[in-house]
Write a structure and sequence with these properties.
The protein is of the alpha/beta class. The N and C termini lie far apart (74 Å). The chain contains 43 helices and 40 strands. It is globular, with a radius of gyration of 32 Å. The strands form nine sheets. Strands 22, 23, 24, 25, 26, 27, 28 and 29 form an eight-stranded antiparallel sheet that branches. The chain folds into seven domains: 250 residues, no CATH class; 151 residues, no CATH class; 80 residues, Orthogonal Bundle (Arc Repressor Mutant, subunit A), CATH 1.10.10; 204 residues, P-loop containing nucleotide triphosphate hydrolases (Rossmann fold, 3-Layer(aba) Sandwich); 172 residues, Rossmann fold; 107 residues, no CATH class; 116 residues, Trna Endonuclease, Chain: A, domain 1. α31 runs antiparallel to α38 and α35 packs across α36.
Length: 1227
């Protein structure tokens, strides 16, 4: 269900009076929307995603068996027989032949209509204005028996498409979140093409519609409008399909739009200013495609066309695109139409001047505007009542920018700091780039981009408008620097070299009057001005840039930590000894008490020693891997604090997520909350309504004596800094930070927890309580339940990788077991798969077999939902969401969460899924909440305690099972039942059933309206990021063999440690991915530039390596422990191993200046270091250039240490000569 909240969701931009451009959503296609069935349909898992188009229609209508037939796959849709592709609405966007699309009538027609067949001409898609279907004007009055007025809906659609102008409107094609570039924590819209409108089709109707349906639903119209473009004469698709497997090119041609608001509800209007920004990006992509000599299109011609659009859009945009919004803001509505009509006549400047002179009092009226004298007097009086700085910015500055009315309101607001505007109106009027630098909107659609401001400051010269600043001004340069730094979401700082490259690359594709190539000299000359927004730091001769706010956050945390660390130890009035903690920690119910008493006592003594060591410290960290007893220790520390200081001492427990806060509350028996809810509390008020953090204006909490923060590894820099701002540290006696530093880094900037631990290790080891003994491992041994999970996790603990005592032989033994596959231990099994079919068969055989063993019953083929239902309810009153969880690192592909959720929905809940779904979810599905619903935006739930609907908090990552609404339980068996709402029973929420969907009571009063698509997703398979902070009885983890920055040591460790009782890993092909992810260079947390305590930037080259150091191609085994990329490298590795010459393979080597390369082999021989490079394709210019550069680097930094062999038939002779001449070894 879609809901339109008129203020929040509808675009602020006023309705066009001329023609408009639009976005068009398409389902993903692996052949470039060329009118052909995908070459490999089974590999396109995106088109069936819940964010495809139209919705999840393709998921239910697709016939993959038919599509994969030899006479169908890859063929033009117009020529295939016995079927129509379910993606027919999108597939022909850039196709050259006619085809057809078929759509089934909606369920609420109650089978009183037949499917509609729509003819799809060349270069045609079908789209629908969904926003107009759910706006306020289509909702009928209560009691009419029908929620929506379909006649109004139909008219809204006609009006929308009527605003398009054939041969002039531009069409921007895009894919919703179901695309290869989206990941779970960073969904993306992706622009896929552009063209110009040729023709808008006609309204279609379903066949065989009954008279009753016609009367109720405006004739039974189809929610699809054919829209034909001028392709191939005008327009093109971006050739993503050609470059899958080439991340370097994909990164350069990928367009993720800045202005999200244009890409909602399937289609939306696009302003001329936003269209201009998209065309600028497309020019950049096309120029790059020309540079790499791509041959999918005549890109020179496409570039000429884009440049003509550039000129056309500037002309249509006019000089003052924001004037209508300014006029709306001041209430001068009558002048809006007057101005727009003058824009179409190229008289926009004259109209603007007439309006301005009238408002300033220089003119009595506005020529050509018919308006009463009394109204003119009222308008002028209201204008005079405004402050001078308001009038100045409204009449002079803001009309130049395509802002929304809402944005104008927030800029003029006295509380503009709520949107991060820490500047005066006078300062904005002086330098409007401040808006792009500082403004943070109320939601993801509310953006003021650099481009939107830059368009107004340096407009097209043809408009005859004077530039506010020159193209190389300090104001523009600083805004560009800020833009680069804001886009960096992981590192605290960026090198000046990298920032300058991005700035100049962005500008290089613009026309001469906007293009300027900045140099490092600008940083020196404009330093004083730039430093008002950007902080500089120098290291090894290179400048590094911070956003001022980021630098201040780091210094705040650094100063707070160091101040607390320097305080004297806490004075205790009650004796708390090591034995105190030992007795609190001891669990007489533990199986270790009787089965391994000595080991148990040793482990408890170790934990008690840690507790006593940190107990009197004003600041301490408790850090440990999964199973080391962090929460148990925390519970004993809390009890000891209450013993030493009294039960009434102020202890606050916080965690970054709702799940984590619930768990710590359950484990300690103390109240806990999320950090966000703590900050949002009115007594502190550090959280704005748009969920951004205040930098000033909140209140310091002086009531806290002990502050305990759990799951610290998940907390990013900004959240940590705001938490520290919110506390009066003079009142705090203890700060205890708890977490596992080996888990995934925060989703956000920095690595605060890791930095604190590293600093403690060097400067303050007494404040670090490091837990090394794994109690869970001991318990599993004692109970005979296996230690495979924790032994495997051990080799992915990044902290231990660089320790001198790291046991590499143990690592090798574990990996050898994993290499064999099958049952590794009682709690761990590994299975290897080759492709999609292999993986799916493995799921069915292995998971079903496990469920059979668990329940003691056999599974009936085709009815696996029965055994699934029994397994999730074993010894439980309700279905247990934590019993079994499938994890994947990825969202896309056939091994990602999107596709596999559909697969397991069909496997475990196929009967209900076929009956009825609401936004892709059926009764009894396993689901996950993906949107936070805190106290400021609670969700409706039925309380079993209160026996009524109440509002409660619910958080991102909570999982549960769908149940029917009690009012529907007697109806769900009917073949006519259509799912409109349901409830979810979440884990640890036994007293509540959370409501989703829309429902009214018997008196036509709305009971709840909680859109499913805005809150829930299927939860059979979730990402490792979503699983962080949770544990499950059984975990099944899919580990693809894929070159991706997402695959890291921390990700694998986090996935492994989610399992409490049993872990099954489905790994692709062989043990290679395990071995590579166990190397320290696969630690993502070590690749984050952060400087809370030490400023030591990582080398630039580390961030420019394509994908990762270890790629899929490196899969050839050798006699050594290494896997290499080629047979020639295998020969070298094998001879070195046989001759006892110690070497490492592809270990980064840094030069004294910080530059880095990856030698093929690094050899340490009798005190001398050598680098052996095997050189291959010198016939390729790019390869040859790279080799010459690399050779020069060796000669400059490591003269006389380079050994080279060349690809050829005489390789064995080359190797023999090298061994003899360099190492004095004969072969």
């Amino acid at each position: 269900m879609l809901t339109i909240n008129s203020k929040e969701n509808q675009p602020d931009l006023l309705k066009p009076t001329v023609y408009m451009h639009i976005t068009i959503r398409v389902a993903w296609h692996n052949n470039g929307w060329n009118g052909h069935v995908c070459d490999e349909p089974e590999k396109n898992t995106y088109c069936i995603g819940r964010h495809s188009y139209p919705g999840d229609y393709i998921k239910g209508a697709r016939d993959l068996t038919w599509e994969t037939r030899e006479d169908v796959k890859g063929k033009p849709c117009g020529t295939v027989t016995n079927g129509i592709p379910a993606c027919g609405f999108s597939i022909n966007a850039f196709g050259g032949e006619k085809t057809k699309a078929k759509i089934n009538p909606p369920a609420w027609f109650n089978r009183e209509a037949q499917p509609a067949l729509i003819d799809i001409p060349e270069a045609t898609v079908c789209i629908w204005n969904y926003e107009g279907m759910y706006s306020d004007d289509v909702i009928r009055e209560p009691g009419t028996g029908q929620k929506y007025d379909y006649e109004t809906r139909l008219q809204n659609a006609k009006d929308y498409f009527g605003n398009l102008k054939e041969h002039q409107s531009l069409l921007f094609y895009y894919a919703n979140y179901s695309n290869p570039f989206s990941e779970d924590e960073s969904p993306r819209y992706v622009l896929v093409g552009i063209s110009r409108l040729k023709k808008v089709g006609k309204i279609h109707y379903y066949e065989g519609v009954s008279e009753e349906v016609k009367a109720k639903y405006a004739g039974g119209f189809v929610w699809q409008m054919p829209v034909t473009s001028h392709y191939p004469d005008e327009g093109f698709s971006i050739p993503y399909h050609k470059y899958f497997g080439n991340p370097t090119v994909l990164e350069r041609i990928l367009i993720v739009p800045d202005q999200h608001r244009n890409f909602k509800y399937a289609t939306r209007p696009v302003s001329d200013d936003d269209a201009l920004a998209l065309v600028e990006r497309l020019i950049e992509v096309v120029t790059y495609l020309i540079e790499i000599e791509d041959d999918t299109q005549n890109w020179e011609e496409r570039r000429k066309w884009l440049l003509s659009l550039f000129t056309e859009l500037w002309k249509k945009r006019g000089a003052y695109p924001g004037l209508p919004e300014v006029l709306s803001y001041i209430g001068f509505i009558e002048a809006i139409e007057y101005y727009k009509s003058n824009v179409s006549k190229q008289q926009d400047k004259a109209a603007y001047n007439s309006i301005r002179t009238f408002l300033s009092g220089e003119a009595a009226d506005i020529p050509g505007l018919n308006i009463s004298s009394s109204r003119l007097k009222e308008i002028k009086r209201n204008w005079l009542l405004m402050e001078d700085d308001e009038k100045k910015i409204l009449s002079g500055c803001l009309p130049r920018f395509a802002l929304s009315v809402g944005q104008v309101e927030k800029i003029l607001s006295s509380k503009r700091e709520s949107n991060n505007l820490y500047c005066s109106l006078e300062e904005i009027n002086e330098n409007p780039y401040l808006l792009s630098e500082q403004y943070i909107g109320d939601n993801e659609d509310d953006i003021i981009s650099f481009h939107s401001i830059d368009h107004g400051i340096i407009p097209n010269p043809d408009l005859g408008l004077e530039n506010m600043y020159t193209k190389n001004s300090a104001e523009r340069f600083r805004a560009l620097c800020v833009d680069v730094l804001k886009r960096e979401q992981v590192h605290s700082f960026v090198s000046q070299t990298k920032a300058l490259f991005h700035i100049n690359n962005k500008l290089s594709y613009l026309p001469e009057w906007k293009n300027h190539q900045f140099t490092t000299k600008y940083f020196d000359v404009d330093a004083e001005f730039i430093e008002k927004a950007v902080r500089f730091r120098k290291y090894n001769g290179e400048n590094y840039l911070y956003l001022n706010g980021v630098y201040e956050d780091e210094r705040l945390i650094e100063n707070t930590i160091k101040t607390l660390q320097q305080r004297p130890d806490i004075y205790l009035r009650v004796e708390i000894t090591e034995n105190t903690f030992f007795n609190l920690l001891k669990d007489t119910q533990s199986p270790l008490t009787n089965r391994a008493p000595e080991q148990y006592e040793s482990a408890l003594r170790g934990q008690a020693m840690v507790c006593r060591k940190v107990f009197t410290k004003p600041l301490c960290v408790i850090a440990g891997a999964a199973g080391t007893g962090k929460t148990t220790i925390l519970k004993s520390i809390i009890k000891s604090i209450e013993k030493a200081h009294g039960a009434g001492t102020g202890i606050i427990l916080l965690a970054p997520t709702g799940k984590a806060s619930e768990r710590i509350k359950e484990k300690t028996g103390k109240t806990a909350s999320t950090i966000h809810s703590f900050l949002a509390n009115p007594n502190r008020a550090w959280l704005n309504d748009n969920f951004t953090f205040k930098r000033i204006g909140g209140k310091e909490d002086g009531s806290i004596t002990t502050l305990i923060v759990d799951e610290c590894s998940m907390i990013d820099l900004a959240l940590f800094a705001t938490l520290f701002r919110s506390i009066n540290w003079n009142s705090v006696q203890r700060l205890i930070l708890v977490g596992d530093p080996n888990q995934l880094p925060p989703i956000g900037r920095g690595k605060v927890f890791s930095d604190v631990i590293e600093w403690f290790k060097k400067d303050s080891p007494d404040n670090l309580g490091k837990l090394d003994i794994n109690v869970r491992q001991l318990e599993n041994k004692a109970k005979g339940e296996g230690n495979g999970i924790l032994e495997l996790a051990e080799i992915f603990i990044q902290e231990k990788q660089s320790e001198e005592n790291f046991d590499k032989s143990k690592q090798e033994q574990v990996l050898k077991k994993v290499q064999q596959g099958g049952t590794i231990d009682k709690d761990l099994s590994v299975h290897y798969w080759k492709d999609m079919d292999d993986l799916e068969l493995m799921f069915k055989s292995i998971i079903i077999k496990d469920l059979e063993e668990e329940t003691g019953e056999g599974a009936e083929p085709g009815k696996f939902y029965n055994i699934w239902g029994k397994a999730i309810r074993l010894n439980k009153e309700y279905a247990d969401p934590t019993y079994l969880q499938i994890l994947s690192p990825f969202r896309g592909e056939y091994y990602g969460t999107d596709y596999l959720n559909i697969f397991f929905q069909e496997l475990f809940n196929g009967y209900q899924a076929k009956k009825s779904q609401l936004d892709g979810i059926a009764l009894y599905d396993k689901v996950i909440q993906f949107r936070n619903r805190p106290k400021s935006n609670q969700i409706s739930a039925y309380s079993w305690d209160d026996r009524k609907n109440v509002k409660i908090d619910i958080y991102n990552g909570e999982i549960g099972f769908v149940t029917p609404h009690p009012f529907d339980k007697t109806k769900t068996g009917s073949s006519y039942f259509r799912l409109k709402n349901f409830q979810v029973k979440f884990d640890r929420r036994d007293n509540y059933n959370v409501n989703y969907g829309f429902r009214k009571d018997n008196y036509d009063k709305v009971m709840f309206n909680e859109p499913v698509e805005e809150n829930l997703a299927l939860g059979y398979v979730i990402s490792v990021h979503k699983a962080q902070g949770s544990e499950f009885n059984r975990v099944y983890f899919i580990l693809p063999k894929k070159s991706s920055q997402l695959l890291s040591m921390e990700l694998l460790y986090t996935a492994i440690t989610r399992a409490q009782r049993h872990l099954t890993i489905f790994a692709q092909q062989d043990v290679t991915t395990f071995t590579e992810l166990s190397k320290i260079e696969k630690s993502n947390i070590r690749k984050i530039n952060s400087s809370i305590f030490e400023f030591e930037p990582l080398p630039n080259l580390m961030f420019s390596l394509s994908s990762n150091w270890y790629e899929d191609q490196k899969a050839i085994a050798t006699l050594s422990k290494y896997f290499v990329r080629s047979k020639s490298e295998m020969n070298i590795a094998n001879i070195l191993q046989l001759k006892g010459i110690p070497f490492t393979y592809e270990v980064p080597r840094f030069a004294p200046n910080g530059s880095m390369y990856l030698p093929d082999f690094t050899i340490n021989w009798q005190g001398n270091e050598y680098f052996w490079e095997h050189v291959g394709r010198l016939d390729l210019p790019e390869y040859k250039n790279h080799w010459e550069t690399k050779k020069k680097w060796y000669n400059e930094h490591f003269p006389g240490q380079l050994i080279v062999t060349y690809e050829g038939t005489d390789q064995s002779i080359q190797i023999a000569e090298i061994l003899k001449n360099t190492f004095n070894i004969s072969v």
